[in-house]
Amino acid sequence: MPTYDWLFDSTGLRDWCDGEGGSSAPMSMADLMSQAGNAPDTSVWQTPFPSMDALNDACASFPQARDLTRGLERGFLDIKDSLSVVLDPLTQPLSWALEAALWLFQTTPWFVMIPVLALIVAVISRSARLTGLILAAFGGLAFINYYDYAMQTLAIITVCALIAVLFGVPVGIAMSRSDRLERIMIPVLDMLQTLPPFVYLIPLIFLFSVTEPKLYGIAVILYAIVPVVRLTNLGIRMVDPEVIEAADAFGMTRRQKLYGVQIPLALPNIMAGVNQTIMMSLAMVVIASMVSAPGLGVLVLRGIRNLELGVGLVAGFGIVLLAVVLDRSTKAALARVNAVQKG
Amino acid sequence: MTDAKISIRNLFKIFGEAPQEALAHAKAGMHKAELLEAHRHVLGLRDINVDMQEGEITVIMGLSGSGKSTLIRHLNRLIEPTAGEVVVNGENILHYGDARLRRLRRSNMSMVFQKFALLPHRSVLENVATPMIVEGAKKNDYETEAAKWLDRVGLQGQGAQYPHQLSGGMQQRVGIARALTSNSDIMLMDEAFSALDPLIRTDMQDLLLELQRELRKTIVFITHDLDEALKLADHLVILKDGEVVQQGEPQHILMHPGDPYIVDFIADINRARVLRAGTVMTKTTDPVPVDSEVSANATLEEVITQGGGNADLTFRVMNRDRQVGVLSMRDVLAALVATEGVKRTEAPAA
Q1: Are A54 and A142 part of one and the same domain?
Q2: Does the beta carbon of B121 lie under 8 angstroms from any beta carbon of chain A?
Q3: Nearest to residue B29, comparing CAs of A321, B174, B38, B51?
Q4: Signed CA dihedral, A98, A100, A104, A107: sign only
Q5: d(Cα B198, Cα B225) in Å, to the nearest integer?
Q6: Domain coordinates of chain B in residue numbers?
Q7: Lowest mean pLDDT among A67-81, A146-160, B192-206, B310-324
Q8: Which of A197, A255, B165, B245 has the greatest CB tally within 10 Å of its CB?
Q9: Do the chains contact at B76 and A250, CB–CB below 8 Å?
């Protein structure tokens, strides 16, 4: 279909088009079929959109649509090596942290680990019921021999959520203090949040070796950091302007205002963000099992790949149990923060 | 007057995209409505000149949108003016840098807010001690000082509570105690009692007057309530649409309102309860035959009560055992209705 021919004929660029070596693009399916002489009858209703391919038909100097994806791939592969030189040492501590956490959670015997976890929850929640739930949940998982997998998942979440909070809170604070930074960051956060979780893995596979823990660590952190950044920013911006005015009127410095007023008053929101971050890292750590993240996700993957219905379902149930435990514990901590400063 | 504690000179504040351009129009004589119509800029304050004397309560009164809260925030530069000067203790604070401005806010001025603006995560005692904590005082040092001021505003032993556990009136007492802890000589009060119930409000006004008799601070008080203004003011400034309509001694404004707007404003108050014998009397120290004596500070209500409803009495007005004037019942009755000089504007038909 000579869709774009008129453009080059009328602007006198025909020579330039034909001069540049002709079509080097591989033949498309449609071309092949028309050469074979049985081109399908096309009615008006089936008229294709005049895409890049049509432009390429009219003028061979323009690339075909598929060159776009290939160009992107080439570009990425070209910068990959230099990018790795920078990113590898920067992210190496993440690998170490994940390896250390995995080692710690797995070598600590169950009869130490489970009471320690229960103790932590007891301290932050001050709730006997919740502590009982923890004991029952981990006891149950250990009883059906899923304890090791659960610990691997827990180790990864601990490290990734901690790092997400460590980076997310300062970014959120910076966003709350600069409208310009907020305008820049919000589309980035939107993208991180809406990008399908699998897509995170694709460029990371090219950048890092699949045997390195930091590959899935980065994917989990990127996915999980969004809520804590958002809610820190929101929480600080929502602090009663009159209280901020009072802080100014009594001559507080910016630092005194931040640590003495803004962060304490935003703490309920920040804690809600931490809760969400933990939940999202749990979701991502299952998907990251496709790039060698150990834990319950591996069993879910096995269930899908080998059609092992029972293994997949029980592992899925274990993840739910882990999620409930983490969610209740952080919510209990949040409730205690709220109780101190309601009204 | 250079000896005023706080002196505001030719202050303009314009909100909008290009305040400096709009400023030229405002200086050329444009008012709030025209400026908004023609140039899409909101005139916050226009050519304000007020002197506030040391040890006095200056009340700035106006309805919402009159710019009174904007004006008080210029005194400690929570809002920056578009043009003009704010002179405190003889120094133009608009020339201050950040550090000097912080020192002014920490040691020369304190502020009380309409919605209290206490820190909800700190105890009452820590809230009261805020000015000292900001200065880096240790717990031992600020505890006794804060407890002292907490006692002074009538909240003995409430220091361990959290603000949300107190009622509105008590929270504002904490707010006042916090302002007093800073030991500043200037107190800014932004509609400090407007959020309180009428009875509690009266209590708080009495508390403020009592504290003021003792402490003699320079107080700038914002209100939209005329009765409150008349009760507290040594110097009354009436704002409308960002401009000073009239300022002066409150009794003088009541007797000589300079603008139809003020006539409207004061039309509904109980003049007998507000006007004083010293304001209405004829000044004379000549001995004249009189029926009785009244104090110059007595309200007309008290004078009428003392006269027992008799309409042709004459009183000798006394100030500290000396005669300062005479007051006939006829003057009293005339003062209750008369608003000389300016005619009351027609109220629009409802």
Answers
A1: no
A2: yes
A3: B38
A4: positive
A5: 11
A6: 271-337
A7: B310-324
A8: B245
A9: no
| Residues B142, B145, B148, B152, CA torsion sign | negative
Between chains, do B117 and A264 touch, taking CB under 8 Å as contact?
Answer: no
Which residues 203-242 of chain A have a CB within 8 Å of chain B? 240, 242
How many A×B Cβ pairs under 8 Å?
Answer: 67
- Residue B157: is its pLDDT beyond 90? no
What whole-number distance in Å separates Cα of residue B253 and Cα of residue B226? 12
| Arithmetic mean of pLDDT, A71-96 | 89
Asked if A271 reaches chain B (Cβ–Cβ under 8 Å), the answer is no
Cβ B162–A265 below 8 Å, yes or no? Answer: no
What is the pTM assigned to this prediction?
0.81
Q: Based on the structure, what is the number of domains in chain A?
A: 2
Among the partner residues A245, A248, A343, nearest to B120 by beta-carbon distance: A343
CB contact under 8 A, B130 and A250: yes
In the three-class reduction of DSSP (H, G, I as helix; E, B as strand; rest coil), residue B293 is classed as: strand
| List of chain A residues whose C-beta atoms are within 8 Å of the C-beta of residue B101 | 251
Q: Is residue A70 part of a domain?
A: no
Mean pLDDT of A163-179: 95
Same domain, A175 and A144: yes
pLDDT bucket at B302, cuts 50 / 70 / 90: confident
CATH label, B271-337, candidates 3.40.50.12780, 3.30.70.100, 3.40.50.11540, 3.90.1280.20: 3.90.1280.20
Q: Among B7, B46, B44, B8, which residue's Cα sits nearest to residue B27?
A: B46
- pLDDT for B332: 84
Domain span including residue A84: 80-340
Q: Output the pLDDT for position A37.
A: 66
Say if the Cβ atoms of B114 and A249 lie within 8 Å: no
Summarize the confidence of residues B186-190 as an average pLDDT. Answer: 93
Q: Which residue has the higher pLDDT, B275 or A243?
A: A243
Asked if A165 and A223 sit in the same domain, the reply is yes
Pairing of strands B218-223, B292-295: unpaired
Beta bridge partners of B247: B237
Q: Which run of H or E residues covers position A263?
A: helix A263-287
ipTM tops the 0.90 cut? no
**Domain-located, residue A72:** no
B72 touches chain A (CB under 8 A): no
* CB contact (8 A) between residue A242 and residue B188: no
- A85 and A130: one domain? yes
CA distance B236 to chain A (A): 24
Q: Is the pLDDT of residue B343 over 50?
A: no
